Amino acid sequence: MKRLKVLALLIVFVVMGSIFSIQTNAKTSKVKDLPVQDLFTGFEGTTVIKNLKTDKVYIYNQNRSKERFTPESTFKVPNALIGLETKAVTDEYEVKRWDGIVREFDGWNTDHSLASAMRQSAIWFYQDMARDIGIEQMQLNLNKINYGNNNISGGIDTFWLNSSLKISALEQTGFIEKLVKENLSFKQQNMKTVKRIIINEEYDDYTIHGKTGTRLSDLELGWYVGYVETKKDTWVFATNINSSGSKAKEITLKCLMRLNIIKNHES
User: Family per UniProt (predicted)?
Assistant: First the structure.
């Protein structure tokens, strides 16, 4: 009788192991290499593109996709979400007055709202908001998101700028996926607001939501993260490269075209 019980347990373990192996292999089989080496000629970088309906993932440079870098201005996306959640700003229209300090981009040297500062990537607005959020609330909410290494030790208004906070391209797509599905532990209205203010391009057949980021100290790190809504699917993406955010965006859009997710509306 004991032998039969032992045999039965062994059979269960074998079956469960087989099921786990099948599930693991199925997940692995959904990751495809993205053959876009020509788009990265002269650059080091990675692109991750995921279909949220099928879970199919396309990756160029899988090793780099797991490597963490500072998020630079792509952190404006979670920063905006935390700002709304903690009431550091009431909505996307609340205006902060420009402090009169002339900065390197003309678009920064004016009053801004949460939405306009996102469009212009006005760092001063989001630094000021981070100070209003404060270290305790910033850390608490960042931990809720589980954003990269969650490290804000570099200073409340600088930790995301070539400093302590780091995140990989794969982790960026994970965060964006949760934002798209509104699966984060934040108010639904706040998630909807953030998704709305990162709209980059709108066409009849698709809408692109995204945010660039550039390490301004040396222009040797650029990001473009976000998602595309088509009539059939939603795709999240993250690209980083040893160049500017504008270059990362250019490459991302070309990758999306190659996968026939979007069209070239400029031609």
Answer: Belongs to the class-D beta-lactamase family.
Stated pTM of the model: 0.88
73 is catalytic: yes
Contact 72, 241 (CB under 8 A): no
Residue 26, pLDDT score = 38
**Closest C-alpha among 211, 209, 237, 253 to residue 72:** 211
Rounded distance between C-alpha atoms, residue 240 and residue 221, angstroms: 7
What is the rounded average pLDDT for all residues in the chain? Answer: 91
Classify residue 265 by its DSSP letter: T
Catalytic residue among 18, 21, 73, 153: 73
d(CA 79, CA 114): 10
- Residue pair 207/183 in contact (Cβ under 8 Å)? The answer is no
183/226 same-domain check: yes
* Domain housing 49: 34-258
pLDDT of residue 2 exceeding 70, the answer is no
Q: Are 190 and 147 found together in one domain?
A: yes
Q: Are residues 213 and 173 in the same domain?
A: yes
Q: Which CATH number is 171's domain given?
A: 3.40.710.10
Alpha carbon distance 160, 165 (integer Å): 5
